[in-house]
User: Fold this.
Amino acid sequence: MDVWSVIGWAGSALVVWSLLQTRILRLRVLNLIGCVILVAFNAVVGVWPMVGMNAVLAVINVVHLWRLLRHRHDEAEYQVLQVGAGDAYLGFVLERHQKDISRFNPGFRSGTSPYAFLVQHGDRTVGVVLAHDAGAGRAQIDLDYVVPKYRDFTPGEFVYRRSDVFTDKGFRQVIAPPRMRESTPYLRNLGFERDGADLVLNL
Assistant:
């Protein structure tokens, strides 16, 4: 098998692999790379219909990536809804994603957080943030969960940006979830700062 055959098979495998991804951003990036490789391969072997098809697919991926990244931090694209701790829909979301939540939050127990927020992207629930009163004007975040499809994004940030959802309840600081205290790039970009063993956001 010559080098270009290997490249062609690799491009095809990458396109197929991209379609198995659950994360939107990763799917688009991998699919774009695969399409570009196949454009080059088919141009070399002279299969022009495949060149055209993969070129069009590459452009489609670029457009989708541009839209995804453009609105990644756009508050107009995401809405924060506060719900009751015993809300039926909240319970449904937590139950539906229980295994995934347990995987990343092994110590989390539902039903112990009186403050609950759903992050919506259109009519889709893409994230859940749960918190409780830690005393001294601090809100302890118990869960900052993102559904797999949107895990390359940070929808939880819109809860923290909307500081009024905490200040209206008398909180002056938000404490990051224990498991996320090492995830400093995400948290520090939102304004969290080290305070002893905690990362806190001053409101």
Summary: DSSP finds eight helices and seven strands in the chain. The longest helix spans residues 48-70. The radius of gyration is 21 Å. The CA atoms of residues 5 and 41 lie 8 Å apart.
